[in-house]
Amino acid sequence: MNNTVLSALGLVKGYQSGDRRLEILRGLNLSVFPGETVSIRGESGSGKSTLLHLLAGLDSPESGTIVWGDESKPDSVRRSGYLGMVFQAFYLIPELTARENILMAKRIQGGLNATAYARADELLNKVGLSERSHHFPSQLSGGECQRVAVARALMNSPRVIVADEPTGNLDEQTGDGVIQLLLDLCSDMKTSLVLVTHNPIHAARTHTRLLLKQGVLEDI
Amino acid sequence: MPWYLYLALKQLFSSGQRLFFTLISIVSVALGVMLLIIVMSVMGGFRYEIRQKIVDTQGDLQVRASGFISNSNALEKVINAIPGVEASTAFAQGVVMLEKDQKPSFPSIQGLDMRTVGKVIPLNRYIIEGTLQDLDDDSVILSSQLAVSLGARVGDAVQIYTPLMLEVAKGQDEVLLPTELKVIGIFEIGHQQLDSSTVLVTLRRMQQLYGLGQGVHGINVRIAASEDADTVTQRINEALKNAQSKTLDIIPGLRARSWSELNQEFLWVLQLEKNIMTVILLAVVIVSAFLTMSLLLVLVLKKTREIGLLGALGATRKQIALCFCFQGVSIGIVGTGLGLIFGFTFLHFRNDVVLLVTRFTGSQAILERFYQFSQMPSHTSFSDLVIVVVSAIILSTLAGLIPAFIAARLKPVEALRNE
């Protein structure tokens, strides 16, 4: 019986660049277990973001399988409840306040109710932004925006979070704070985490540390 | 509220630069709608007022012959028995010379059958001095502007000369004696031509003035409010045909014509003008739809990564398309609503606006003489309102469809990669 929350089996993905074909992933395998935190490092262009997009079901592999729990066909409707995403560029909606941005995840999933509002307030409290819940992204610092993005990713109580270089736009100190917050929240909520990062210190804080090299993952 | 409607409204009416662009789109739609509703209402008003004046002065339809009708009583009996006819009244008309204190005028004259005229023509509504009931064979009612130009008031005497007097005078060596009548009332219909030169007398006096004997020139007919004038006209013509072959003497050219048939060409020109103006002004709404489309296209380009994020959060393509399409619809609905408010406000104060404009551009009298109305008419039909509202909202929706289609085609993974 498969007890992983997220697994990839024999993923192959490439891109056509002019006359040349670039093989990005070459039969990559990955298993993420409940509550496990996994870091993936690799050189720029090694395919880390491509891998995350495949794991999140935003893109399709040329061959291989992605399995979410027991489901091998990831789709957008299921994604909103199963998998949360954190991006380097935050991607907060500028017309919405911090609280509204967090609630947006629930609005799209459906079933916005008083419990959801309470959950959003609880998450705002956990990421330390209770006082700034009615501020717009333009009124928040980069670190605060990323904390809102983390809260949004956790809004629907996903089984796993995939984070694509979440500290890439932040200074070192703020970035450290965000990673620690992400790890603490995932630990509290028993949520698995797949963290793509360049930072070896951040990677060192995860249970499993992997390196993406020549299209496959290696243990570090 | 579905999330895509919520986000569409948030994006449209957020503060700052975006709100400014939204307002520009809304105002452009509102201006187009405002112009459409004003022009269609004023053009519709001309038609409505003209119909009203015709019906109020001639009835819903008129029965006339090639010459004069000698047996009007028998004819009226036939007409009144036709389903849909409420009442009828005989009339005679012509032109006379009217004189007061050596001041001549050449108005048209109407002889009214005092027994029946009130059932067909609501003249009492337009009498501003005196009453219609006081009109007898020795009195006359003048139109307001004619009374002013002659300097005649209620109680004054006026002299009337008719073409019959000229004919009598031609053959014999007689002195031309006018008929003296007393002014017992003044009326004002609001139609420049009628108000400037019309005289009302009793039918009997008119028959004497024109030497008609018992003859009349025609019969005005009032129909029930629920009836269609053209349908009743058709019924009358069939009944007249049957009656002439059985009971009535043959009257050459006897035929009923509805108010719209009597003024067919004028109404056609009016409708043509209205249609042309509608098409021209619809172009304003089309231009505003293009403006909305370009603003939404810019928005889609600016929001590419957000669209990717929505996909990553689980939004379907259809929902993303609806989010942008709804923005076009919202601009259309709000713009149309505002346009209607501005338009109807303008129409409410239209006469003040005309007064203001004529104060700078010239005399209002010229305007009245040209357009025949003392007030700018306005009548908004339900069908005109539906055409304006539906066309503005459909065009705005279409304007939102192309950006919506582009947004929906974006793959989340490509949108997120976009820098």
Instruction: Tell me the quaternary state.
Output: heterodimer
User: Beta-strand percentage of chain A?
Assistant: 25-35%
Distance between the termini of chain A: 27 Å
Low-confidence stretches of chain B: none
Largest sheet of chain B: 12 strands, mixed
Number of individual domains of chain B: 2
Can you name the CATH architecture of chain A?
A: 3-Layer(aba) Sandwich
How widely separated are the two ends of chain B? 31 Å
The first-level CATH class of chain A is given as Alpha Beta
- Per the CATH scheme, the topology name of chain A is Rossmann fold
Q: Strands of the largest sheet of chain A, in order across it?
A: 5-6-7-3-8-9
Total strands of chain B:
12
State the low-pLDDT regions of chain A, or none: none
Explain the overall architecture:
The complex is a heterodimer of chains A (220) and B (419). With 220 residues, chain A is an alpha/beta fold. Chain A has one domain: 3-Layer(aba) Sandwich (Rossmann fold), CATH 3.40.50. Chain A is built from 7 helices and 9 strands; from the N terminus they run βββαβαβαααβαβαββ. Chain A has helices at 48-55, 76-82, 98-109, 114-126, 142-154, 172-188, 200-204, and strands spanning 6-17, 20-32, 37-42, 63-68, 83-86, 160-164, 192-196, 208-213, 216-219. In chain A, the strands form 2 sheets. Chain A has a 6-stranded mixed sheet, with helices on both faces. A 3-stranded antiparallel sheet of chain A has the order 2-1-4, with helices on one face. In chain A, a hairpin with a 2-residue loop joins strand 8 and strand 9. In chain B, strands 1, 2, 3, 4, 5, 6, 7, 8, 9, 10, 11 and 12 form a 12-stranded mixed sheet that branches. Chain B is of the alpha+beta class and 419 residues long. Chain B folds into 2 domains: 3-50 and 266-417, no CATH class; 72-250, no CATH class. In chain B, strand 3 and strand 4 form a beta hairpin. Chain B has 17 helices and 12 strands. Chain B has helices at residues 3-12, 17-58, 72-80, 117-120, 144-150, 163-171, 192-196, 203-210, 229-246, 259-262, 264-302, 304-312, 317-348, 350-361, 364-371, 382-409, 412-417, and strands at residues 61-69, 85-95, 97-100, 103-105, 108-112, 127-130, 139-143, 157-161, 179-187, 198-202, 216-223, 255-258. The two termini of chain B are 31 Å apart. In chain B, helix 1 (3-12) packs across helix 13 (317-348), helix 2 (17-58) packs antiparallel against helix 11 and helix 2 crosses helix 13. The chains are: A alpha/beta (220), B alpha+beta (419). Chains A and B meet through helix 2 and helix 3 of A and helix 1, helix 12 and helix 17 of B.
